[in-house]
Design brief:
By secondary structure, the chain is of the alpha+beta class. It is 29% helix and 25% strand. A seven-stranded mixed beta sheet has the order 1-2-3-4-5-7-6, with helices on both faces. Helix 5 links the parallel strand 4 and strand 5. The longest helix is centred in the first third of the chain and has 16 residues. It is globular and about 45 Å long. The termini are far apart.
Length: 185
Amino acid sequence: MDRPDAYAIRHALPEDVPGARRLILDTFYREFGYGYVPDWHADVVDLQAHYLDHPRHALLVATRDGEVVATTALHSRGPVHPPHPRELAERYPDGTTAQLVRVYVRTEHRRHGLARELVRRACEFAVDEGGYRHLYLHTNAAVPGAEAFWRSLAEEVHDARPSGEHGPGVATVHFEIPLRRPAPV
């Protein structure tokens, strides 16, 4: 098995944007089965402006042989109500919430620690950026392995599956990753 150091892992460069967009869109269509939804995926249209040009946002990628094989993004917006519960939108407000999104790995590159390493680096970015009080994310637990992965890194804050609030086939679970700031010297 390849290790994460067999890949180039970094903040995305402008030349990574087309490959990152391709991977993200492939995930929407092939893995999630519902494709591009403008209300949920507007950032994907212009990854450069949304992540690379915004100082408080980040798009991280893992590449192998020049191909983007994994992504993770972070932006400064909390969950939107609706469709998410009002109490989550209030708990995780825009500006002070770093939200992890677009944590995707091409199937043939899974089980190499890429998602874990990209998330670790996104968390470091959130701490270094400052001003963030929470690191929030939600996942579709119907995607094989997604729930177990997030439970290994984060704390559940709301399970929306019993209410079915996102509709058929979307089993949303909301999580928070504690932001660990270095101890003062």
